[in-house]
Amino acid sequence: MAQASARHILVSTEAKANELKTAIANGADFAQVAKENSSCPSSRDGGNLGTFGPGQMVKEFDTVVFSAPVGEVQGPVKTQFGYHLVEVTSRKD
Questions:
Q1: Any idea where the PpiC domain is (predicted)?
Q2: How confident is the model at residue 1, as a pLDDT?
Q3: What torsion do the CA atoms of 25, 17, 47, 6 make, to the nearest 10 degrees?
Q4: Alpha-carbon distance 88 to 7, whole Å?
Q5: Domain boundaries, the chain
Q6: How far is CA 45 from CA 9, 13, 22, 49, 51, in A?
Q7: In principle, which of 19, 32, 38, 69 could form an S-S bond with 43, CB 3.0–4.6 Å?
Q8: Reported pTM
Q9: Which pLDDT score is estimated for 89?
Q10: How far is residue 55's CA from residue 34's CA, in Å, rounded to a whole number?
């Protein structure tokens, strides 16, 4: 069964997600940006969500995590919780 590890940043607006994505693309540290901006409790751990399988996260999130290239920041991804920037840190198919 497929497994992935990912980290994310959760914010309330698409504009804020895009602003943070630009900052990361320009060299800001993902974990630090998560700690300072993400509304998810995972922000304390740099946005790290650990390892999980398909179907354990909301559909929109799952789709990105199990298809996006490892190590590239994806998003903003809209879910019922807000807007996410997602980075897949590892995946085993």
A1: 1-90
A2: 85
A3: -70
A4: 7
A5: 3-92
A6: 11, 22, 21, 8, 14
A7: 38
A8: 0.95
A9: 98
A10: 24
Residue 35 DSSP one-character state: H
Q: How far apart are CA 53 and CA 34, in angstroms?
A: 22
**Closest C-alpha among 54, 64, 55 to residue 8:** 64
Strand ranges across the sheet with 82-92: 48-52, 3-11, 82-92, 73-79
pLDDT at residue number 56: 96
pLDDT beneath 70: ranges in the chain: none
- The CATH fold assigned to 3-92 is Chitinase A; domain 3 (3.10.50)
Type of residue numbered 41: P
Tell me which DSSP letter residue 8 carries.
E
Structure tokens at 40: 């998810």
